[in-house]
Automatic annotation (TrEMBL):
Organism for this UniProt entry: Pycnoporus cinnabarinus (Cinnabar-red polypore)
GO-annotated cellular components: cullin-RING ubiquitin ligase complex; cytoplasm; nuclear matrix; nuclear pore
Function text: tRNA nucleus export receptor which facilitates tRNA translocation across the nuclear pore complex.
Protein name: Exportin-T
Localisation: Cytoplasm; Nucleus
Taxonomic superkingdom: Eukaryota
Upper lineage: Eukaryota, Fungi, Dikarya, Basidiomycota, Agaricomycotina
């Protein structure tokens, strides 16, 4: 094993170091082989956990990390259980590792990545084992969290705590995080495993995990607070950092599971204040984690909207977020330009929290049906709106965008409501504020420079603007006037201010221009074109140019644009403003048609350095396009003079620059293609050249000037073209080649700027400078001839010539042959398609002028294309190119023929190739794989017939192409009919139908072109050869000759198919339908019948088929009704239920038989008539045959009187069964099913006949029956019997609807029963004398109570009724318990301490028979009160659990009732404390741990109802102190268990002092032992053996501190010895003796014998006074008092214990039970007793008397004042400002865990704090400010 380990580790180290190249690959292969071994996990586990001799880890971190990866692979995706050996090995190794590394070790301090990886691995192990193998995972883990006492002062181990947090985070991620689940492939096994683990954690450990996490976090918060108060030093700073990390991860862990465990665990009275505290913690990570936790709490899905609303109200996040937003915004403002990314992320987190909170409220307001919830949620949502707007206005876009979803939801909601609800002032005010924020956010940041910004940042801002625009659009939909007016006002005000010389910030200026830019989109009600800017009347198009629009007023948008131009904003010294100006004016060209005076200022701005002449290339590039767009849009408004001026202004920009892309080792062709396809400024410069063409075209009325101007532009380009051509010596001269390409493209774009050449040319048309374009074309051709090997040049030439042709028409036609020859000299296959498209365009433009060119071109082109089409297709790209080439070629051929250029095919040059051309067309026509090409081929043949086969019109004239008609007759027509018979020719395919129509067109073209010859050919030659009957052939040829094209296409399509006889077909089919109805379908052929129906539909006789079939169905139904149903009608009226049942059953069976017969035949007909249903019924818009058959059944069967009798029979049978008789349910059910399947044909909602006719009748009868039934049962039954009968009726009706009627009737019948048997008699049943709710509770009738609960919960008012009744009965019983406890609980009296009671219990004779005194009675009553309350609680808990299904609503009512009557007893806190005290002293003796825990749990249950928990705390602290000091607790575990329960219930602060008392006892025992060791070591002997308990004064109740005394010399010596020892070990402390709390053991010699007495310290001091006097001497009361200095009250108690109790150690003179100042005392030397050891107990009051209770109350009231003061100051310090009501509510909420403060008391404390200047009252007298 050791050798394998070392080899494994070495392989990992080598594999992780690529430098060891020789062994690297071998190591990887070895590791791969190891991982494939099933036992690899053992090696990996050993590598990870194996220690070295020093206690550290043996192997390097990288090796251990890889080992964890191996373990991960072993554990991940493992869904079957691990075997026991494997599980136990891994488990034990993991636990040992955690103990050694995390508890006693450094927790991987040098390799933090291992901590994270180990947490992930342990999580995978957990997922594999938790459900079945290791259910105690968390129990084992929690045991490791508490550190050994010797290792840490902290209560929780930091490292283990962090490991726990990491594991829980990982678990949550694995089982509940949807993002993680979505990222990995779905696995059904993993999904099921995760669900099992999730459910198991919820059931077993969710509460404990949550408690552990929150306890650790709370402890961390306390430690953080302590460390921060102490100040900063290296040690504390390190500890503080660790604590912050613990709290941070703790809160993150909490956030990870809040979404998938019970909300009642995570949202409690403790967690909410804790989270709010952490939300404003100085530590940023903690705040971020807390914000996330709250976000997930708010987002948690809850079933009930009311629960969600309650959660939101409990959290009260609206006010918190308001305050935090205000606080963080102030901090943000104070930082100025210094950005704190962390704090901004916190604001972002707060924004997300607000967003989620708002969205949840929106769901409640929009989706909840409860008006109350919607209203309350709406109020809460409205409170959030101002905070949302402040977040939206945040200067940081990330923070701003957090509320976008909420804002969008709110606007959409209001948009939906705006049409139905008027906009109230509040909503309008919100929209106005929102619009202000949006307009502000639309601005650029003043400090930003968009030109220098990163492209991503600019894109982000543009995206933000787009989002804001959507909000503005949504606002516009709600209030259009508000938005348009706000935008208009802001834009105009800014532009006017700038025009008036006011200094405007650049971002404000840009925003104003931007608003003008988008106003056209905002103002959706504006017109189009000029109407958008000018309020002119509608004019005809031809009169618009003549109209002077300047006399018409401008629209709002027109005003804004006018102000934009006139303000001079284009001169604003910021590029962004200028560019936005250019974008705006180019966008709204129509404005300048109505205000022409604005054109020149705009063009001037574009021409100078702001635009076209900007030094920035990016600016120029964009303005090139905008300038072109402006010129193109407003060219008719620009005069020739301005056009010349503009052209001169841009002439210097017409210089072409070439940019080369950067490529690695490219060849010249790659560079050329990349340079052309890359985006460069030249692409934009082409727009400038097009604008040049447009400007020159404006001089068309001065041809010479236009020609000169155009030549002045193109001449430099042509010269430069010549230079570049000479420079391009070869393919390596890339720059020169590209320059040629660019210039040709520029020349083409100049031509593109001109209007297109008209065809035909109108009269008076002025042509463009044709000579110049001819020269340009020749120059381009020269370049092409020299450089036709370069594709970029060919592409540019093709583009340029297409534009020149469009501009000049046939002027340059003589250049086309040379152009074609050079383009075809070198080309790639993909170019051929573009080339043919170019030829097609040229044909369109040049028509006959292109004849010679095409004559030369078509032959080589056809040969080349046929060669390409003949090549095999090798891939998808080839297939696409092949198809596209074929279609482009066919398109070109059709264009040639349709343009009457067909003579090129039969010219001397090409006629030899005609046959090949026609053959290739035939092949394409025959190819069914490409219907588009097929259609084009037949179209080509049709056009050819038109031009080549036309019969000569005059004798002696020759046909254009003699003999072509024979080719058509012999080849093309047979091919057409052959295509029709191809198997692939599916007429259902739309593309095939198109081919079919084209064949019909072709055939009709032949017929009409050749006339009688064609008619004779078809009738006498071709069609007979195809075996057509003569009549059919004649009909076909006649239709082809006489019908119009559309009619013949329809005929031809319909004709396609076999010949059938419809009448004969229907005759056969109708006979077969009757046979089917007569149940003789077995003798028929389905295929034959189907074909009959198919043919009838195919040949347009679907109507005949449909009507005939429905007629046969109707006749059959009438026959069946007469034969079966009518004879079954009831004979006469009878009262005999049996006879009624039999007659009804017969009728229903008859109806069912007819139905079965009908549907059986109808089902077969549906199969036969499928084609009719699919084709005919859809087009004719009639029901399918099955639906038609059902409608006919309704019409002929379900009609009066049949329907009336059937429904009456159903009702009769139901009534008979309700009366207790047995019926045949199946007959009713069968009939009801018929009605269910039939739907009302006249109903839009397709309602069934059952719902229409049967169900209403059943419900009417049922309502009458159960109204009477309820009243009858109340008269004859007691409450339990009534409930049994009613529940029985519910079961009967449910069974009846299931077996007889329909389940859809169940809720309606249930409502009738609920209304008449439950709702109407709720209070009557509950309050029935001797049998109602109280009686059932008294007699423990759980079954009856459960029945009552089940019935009452069926109705909405039932549960409130039951809840109220239970509350009343609990309070009544509770008051009886209270009365019993106060009947004898009188004040006064003293009793001995508990030992007296014990002693008296053991005494005999008279002592035992003596009645207890008043105090003892009161104690007994106190204990009895608690026990009675517990018994009552147990009783109702049992009822709630067994009878009331643990209903939460009833639980709430019961809890409220218990809380009410318990708090009516003002002594309840004291009684509960006494009960616990009694049980923890003697009541738990002999009980098991489980029994102890049950008693304490029950006590906590009662304690939970107390509102004044601080009163209980005071009593409990006193009783606990006595138990600890006197050693009277029977179980230390029980004491600590009770303390733990109180801590869980009330928080750690509640038990902090109580835990301190236990700590003092532990430390005192250690100190006492050290003192005794000290005495022994120094050989110090003392007469008195001293036992001392040192109590911390702040922990212990020091109510007896005033009772002191004068110690005798013996005690003084011993006490001072201890003081010297103690103070030598603890400097700075002060000891004060408390004799009232001590006791002593003293041996006393009496006359008869010695006795060992246990007495109090005071009693010892008194007894020592009698040591030095004679037995018959006396000491008076005053002498004793002066000698001991014991206070009177205490002295009387002590003397009473010594002289008046059972054991009289002293004699009182005179005798009596009370001690008076005049008494005297002597030593009772004659005392004797049977016991050697005697305890002399002090007379003490067990239950407070009135005076003591008043003192306690005053003390508590004083403490409450301080608590209220602290709470008020804490709240106001956080909130700064609050209204009075809000402050009172918040104080009440925060103090509710300790007591219920009185609002009057809170008000007094506020007044007191105002006097002490902690607070100040605001001017409104209703709110306060905090004074720091």
């Amino acid at each position: 094993m050791e050798q394998d380990l070392n080899q494994f580790v070495q392989a990992i180290l080598i594999a992780s170091d690529p430098a060891q190249s020789s062994l690297h690959q071998q190591a990887l292969q070895y590791l791969t082989a190891v991982q494939q071994n099933s036992s690899a996990w053992r090696l990996a586990l050993a590598v990870f956990v194996e220690p070295d001799p020093t206690g550290g880890r043996k192997h390097p971190p990288h090796a251990r990390f890889y080992a964890l990866r191996v373990l991960d692979e072993f554990l991940d995706n493992r869904f079957e259980p691990l075997d026991d050996n494997t599980f136990e090995t891994i488990r034990q190794s993991v636990l040992n590792y955690i103990q050694s590394e995390y508890i006693y070790g450094p927790a991987e301090a040098d390799a933090s990545f291992l901590r994270n990886k180990f947490a992930h691995t342990l999580t995978l192990f957990f997922l594999c084992t938790y459900v079945d193998k290791w259910p105690t995972f968390f129990t084992d883990f929690f045991a490791l969290i508490h550190p050994p006492e010797s290792t840490s002062q902290a209560p929780f181990n930091t490292h283990v705590s962090l490991l726990l947090f990491h594991i829980v985070l990982e678990i949550s991620g694995e089982v509940a995080d949807q993002l993680i689940k979505a990222a990995r492939p779905f696995s059904e096994q993993r999904h099921a495993r995760d669900a099992r683990v999730r459910d198991a954690v919820r059931d077993r450990d969710a509460a404990r995990i949550n408690e552990a996490v929150l306890t650790i976090v709370a402890d961390g918060v306390e430690r953080m607070s302590h460390l921060r108060k102490e100040g900063v030093n290296p040690s504390s700073e390190r500890e503080l950092d660790q604590t912050i990390e613990v709290v941070d991860y703790g809160v993150r862990t909490f956030a990870s599971y809040v979404g998938w465990i019970d909300i009642n665990l995570t949202v409690t009275r403790d967690t909410v204040p804790l989270l709010f505290t952490l939300l404003s913690d100085p530590s940023l990570p903690i705040r971020l984690a807390t914000a996330l936790a709250l976000t997930r709490i708010v987002a948690k899905g809850l079933k009930e909207p009311g629960d969600k609303l309650q959660l939101i109200k409990v959290l009260s996040l609206g006010q918190v977020l308001d305050a935090l937003e205000e606080k963080t915004r102030a901090e943000q403002k104070s930082r100025g330009s210094d950005t704190d990314e962390g704090e901004e992320s916190y604001r972002e987190a707060l924004g997300k929290l607000l967003n989620v909170l708002g969205l949840e409220l929106c769901k409640l307001t929009d989706d909840c049906s409860d008006e109350g919830i919607r209203s309350e949620a709406g109020l809460l949502l409205n409170q959030l709106l101002p905070v949302m707007l402040r977040f939206l206005a945040d200067e940081y876009d990330d923070t701003c965008s957090t509320v976008f979803p909420l804002l969008q939801t709110i606007l959409l909601s209001r948009q939906r409501k705006s049409s139905s609800e008027p906009l109230d002032p509040t909503k309008r005010s919100f929209l106005s504020s929102l619009l202000g924020v949006i307009l502000e956010k639309l601005k650029w940041d003043e400090e930003s420079d968009p030109e220098d910004m990163d492209e991503d940042d600019k894109a982000a801002f543009e995206e933000l603007r787009k989002e804001l625009r959507t909000f503005m659009d949504s606002t516009l939909m709600i209030d259009p006037e508000l938005v348009t007016e706000a935008v208009r006002t802001l834009a105009l005000n800014t532009l006017t201010a700038y025009q008036n010389g006011v200094a405007i910030k650049w971002n404000d200026a840009e925003l104003a221009v931007y608003l003008v830019y988008i106003f056209g989109e905002i103002n959706k009600s504006g017109g189009k074109g000029r109407a958008a800017f000018c309020q002119a009347p509608a004019l005809q198009k031809d009169k618009r140019k003549e109209t002077d629009y300047s006399e018409y007023p401008l629209t709002s948008h027109g005003e804004m644009l006018y102000a934009l131009v006139q303000s001079g904003i284009s001169a604003y010294p910021h590029k962004t403003v200028q560019m936005q100006f250019f974008e705006t004016v180019a966008r709204y060209g129509d404005f300048f048609k109505v205000r022409k005076e604005c054109i020149m200022p705009t063009l001037q701005a574009m021409l100078d350095t702001r635009g076209l002449h900007s030094p920035e290339s990016s600016t120029r590039s964009r303005v090139y396009y905008l300038f072109y767009r402006f010129i193109r849009e407003d060219r008719n408004e620009i005069s020739p003079e301005v056009a010349v001026s503009l052209l001169e202004g841009i002439r210097d920009l017409l210089v072409i620059q070439v940019e080369l892309p950067e490529l690695e080792n490219p060849d010249p062709q790659d560079i050329l293609q990349e340079a052309v396809s890359a985006s460069t400024i030249f692409d934009s410069q082409l727009y400038l050249f097009e604008a040049v063409g447009t400007l020159v075209s404006l001089l068309q009325k001065s041809p010479d000037q236009a020609a000169a101007l155009l030549l002045s532009v193109v001449r430099p380009l042509l010269d430069e073209l010549s230079v570049s051509l000479q420079a391009a010596k070869g393919p390596d001269d890339v720059l020169a080649i590209l320059k040629v390409h660019h210039i040709i493209m520029a020349l083409g774009n100049i031509a593109k700027g001109f209007p297109e050449y008209p065809n035909p040319v109108p009269e008076g048309y002025t042509a463009p400078p044709l000579d110049v374009f001819r020269e340009v074309g020749q120059a381009i051709l020269v370049c092409l001839e020299a450089m036709n090997v370069f594709r970029v040049v060919r592409d540019a030439t093709r583009f340029a010539f297409a534009r020149i042709l469009a501009t000049t028409g046939s002027t340059v036609a003589q250049l086309i042959p040379t152009l074609m020859a050079n383009l075809l000299a070198h080309f790639e296959p993909t170019e051929l398609i573009d080339f043919m498209n170019f030829i097609g365009l040229s044909i369109h433009k040049l028509q006959e002028d292109l004849l010679d060119v095409l004559d030369q071109l078509i032959g080589p082109l056809s040969t080349h294309i046929n060669g390409i089409l003949a090549q095999p297709v090798t891939g998808t790209d080839d297939q696409v190119t092949h198809v596209d080439t074929k279609r482009a070629y066919l398109g070109l051929l059709n264009s040639i023929v349709s343009s009457k250029l067909h003579t090129i095919f039969i010219s001397d040059r090409n006629k030899a190739q005609l046959e090949n051309l026609l053959e290739s067309m035939l092949q394409l026509a025959e190819d069914p794989s490409d219907p588009t090409s097929q259609k084009a081929a037949f179209s080509f043949f049709g056009r050819c017939v038109n031009v080549w086969a036309e019969v000569p019109k005059a004798p002696g004239d020759q046909q254009v192409l003699p003999g072509f008609e024979r080719f058509v007759y012999e080849r093309v027509i047979p091919t057409a009919f052959a295509v029709l018979s191809l198997p692939q020719f599916n007429i259902k395919d739309g593309q095939i139908v198109v081919v079919l129509h084209e064949i019909a067109n072709f055939l009709q073209t032949v017929s009409k072109t050749r006339g009688q010859e064609a008619f004779d050919f078809f009738v006498n030659v071709f069609l007979p050869s195809q075996n057509w009957p003569q009549a059919t052939a004649v009909e076909f040829a006649t239709k082809m000759r006489d019908l119009d094209p559309k009619g013949f296409r329809k005929y031809f399509t319909d004709f396609h198919g076999p010949d059938v006889s419809i009448d004969e077909t229907w005759a056969k089919l109708s006979r077969n339908i009757v046979e089917i109805q007569n149940h003789n379908a077995a003798n028929l052929s389905f295929e034959e019948n189907h074909r009959y129906a198919y043919n009838m539909v195919l040949y347009k006789h679907g109507e005949k088929l449909y009507k005939g079939t429905t007629q046969l169905i109707a006749e059959n139904l009438e026959k069946l009704a007469k034969e079966y149903i009518i004879p079954a009608f009831p004979a006469a009226v009878t009262d005999d239920p049996v006879q009624k049942s039999q007659e009804g059953e017969m009728l229903l069976k008859a109806l069912k038989k007819v139905w079965d017969d009908h549907t059986s035949s109808l089902s077969k007909l549906r199969d036969v008539l499928k084609y009719m249903d699919r084709v005919y019924t859809t087009s004719a818009k009639v029901p399918p045959i099955w639906d038609a058959g059902l409608i006919l059944f309704i019409k002929h069967i379900i009609k009066p009187p049949i329907e009336d009798h059937v429904i009456a029979a159903i009702l009769t049978l139901i009534q008979v069964e309700r009366d207790g008789y047995t019926i045949n349910r199946s007959s009713v059910k069968g009939c009801v099913d018929v009605f269910i399947q039939l739907t009302d044909p006249d109903s839009r909602d397709a309602i069934s006949l059952y719902r229409r006719d049967v169900e209403p009748a059943v419900l009417r009868e049922s309502e009458t029956f159960y109204r009477q039934e309820g009243e009858k049962l109340l008269e004859t039954c007691d409450a339990p019997e009534y409930l049994r009968r009613v529940e029985g009726r519910f079961h009967e009706e449910e069974s009846r609807t299931h077996h007889i009627l329909s389940t859809q009737t169940t809720p309606h019948l249930q409502r009738i029963l609920e209304q008449h048997l439950v709702s109407a008699h709720l209070w009557t049943v509950v309050n029935m004398p001797n049998s109602g709710l109280d009686a059932m509770i008294d007699t423990d009738k759980f079954d009856d109570l459960a029945r009552l609960y089940r019935l009452f919960t069926r109705v909405s008012e039932g549960l409130p009724c039951l809840k109220k009744s239970l509350r009343e009965t609990v309070i009544r019983r509770g008051k009886e318990i209270n009365d019993a406890s106060t009947g004898l609980a009188v004040d006064g009296g003293e009793s001995q301490d508990e030992e007296v009671g014990e002693a008296s219990a053991k005494a005999k004779g008279k002592a035992k028979a003596r009645a207890p005194n008043a105090a003892s009675q009161t104690l007994v009553l106190a204990l009895k009160w608690v026990q009675d309350v517990l018994d009552l609680k147990d009783k109702f808990d049992t009822i709630w659990s067994e009878a009331f299904a643990r209903d939460r609503e009833l639980e709430s009512g019961l809890n409220d009732a218990f809380q009410t009557f318990i708090n009516l007893n003002e002594k309840s806190p004291e009684f509960i404390s006494l009960f616990i005290d009694d049980n923890l002293k003697k009541g738990l003796k002999g009980k098991s741990d489980t029994e102890v825990d049950m008693v304490l749990d029950k006590t906590i249950t009662v304690f939970r109802y107390i509102t004044d928990k601080d009163v209980f705390e005071r009593y409990y602290k006193g009783h606990l102190a006595k138990r600890l000091l006197l050693g009277r607790s029977v179980s230390d575990d029980a004491e600590r268990g009770m303390l733990a329960k109180l801590k869980v219930e009330c928080g750690y602060q509640f038990t902090q002092k109580l835990e301190g008392m236990f700590h003092d006892m532990k430390i005192s025992a250690e100190t006492l032992q050290a003192y005794r060791d000290y005495l022994a070591k120094n050989s110090i002997e003392q007469d008195i053996e001293l036992s001392v308990i040192v109590m911390t004064s702040t922990f212990w109740p020091m109510s007896h501190s005033a009772a002191s005394c004068t110690f005798p010399a013996q005690l003084i010596s011993a006490s001072r010895s201890f003081e010297r020892f103690y103070l030598s070990r603890h400097s700075g402390r002060r000891l004060k003796w408390q004799p009232s709390l001590g006791n002593a053991d003293v041996r006393v010699q009496f006359k008869s014998r010695k006795h060992d007495l246990n007495v109090s310290t005071f009693a010892l001091v008194i007894l020592l006074l009698f040591e030095d006097i004679l037995d018959d001497q006396f000491l008076t009361y005053e002498e004793i008092k002066n000698a001991t200095a014991i206070p009177d009250v205490e002295l009387k108690r002590q003397l009473q214990s010594l002289a008046c109790a059972k054991y009289k150690i002293l004699k009182k003179h005179p005798p009596g039970r009370d001690v008076n100042p005049t008494d005297s005392f002597s030593f009772n030397v004659d005392f004797s007793a049977s016991l050697q050891k005697i305890k002399i107990s002090t007379i003490a009051s067990r239950v407070e008397n009135t005076e003591e209770r008043k003192e306690t109350k005053d003390r508590i009231d004083e403490e409450r004042k301080h608590q209220m003061d602290a709470c008020i100051v804490r709240i106001m310090k956080d909130r700064k400002h609050m209204t009075h009501n809000d402050l009172v509510n918040e104080v009440t909420r925060q103090l509710a865990s300790r007591f219920q403060p009185n609002p009057v008391a809170i008000k007094k404390r506020i007044e007191n704090l105002i006097e002490r200047e902690y607070l100040e009252r605001c001017e409104d007298r209703k709110s306060y400010n905090y004074l720091a």
